[in-house]
Amino acid sequence: MDSTNGLCSLRDGVDALVMSAAWRPAALDVLRGAREGWTPADLARWLLGPYTHATSHVPRDADDGLAETTPPRGVDTRRVSEVLSSSASDVVDALECVRSRGTVEFVRAAIDQGAIVPTWDGFWLPIDKPRMLLSDRVLSLFAADYLLRPRDYVTDLEICAKCRGVVFDRAARQAGLCGAHRIHDLVEVLRPASRPPPPHSYAAAAHRIS
Fold this sequence. Notes:
The protein is mainly alpha-helical. The protein has helices at about 15-35, 40-55, 65-70, 75-100, 105-115, 135-150, 150-155, 170-175, 180-190, 200-210; strands at about 115-120, 125, 155-160, 165-170.
């Protein structure tokens, strides 16, 4: 980080483009983990794996922020589940505002909090700051992604009406459902209706066993 003007001292936008491939998948990964019931170990793997990779090109402060968020050994599994659930709810609510009203308060908040920082040539990068809430870490990934690909949030972003899963898929946008629930509903439509046999079949069966 440049100490004189707060700009991230990366070489150029190439670094941002390389990093950007990790932002959205990492953010979606932790939302999926919240639905699937991640354990403390799962969350730690995300923080030290996909999340670290997504912010790995940004110089970190000496006081590494991950120390504040990585679950310690022996942490209460129920507490981690609560943090994941509440964080995911906050993130989905923020994205729902983009989806339904076109408002991007979470992007402005990420900028104001310093959770994303500009490069010399106008890109924005998510950074790992000390004592960041999990929801802020995830939203910083989405914020940087939005500033690079805003059109995706207009044409592709959808919140599944059944599971509240976040997807970027134009078919989902049209149906209001994620892929899994679109397939489920299609299978239900195609499933043969279970109908009782006609009355005469009961008479025929009775005749055969009499």
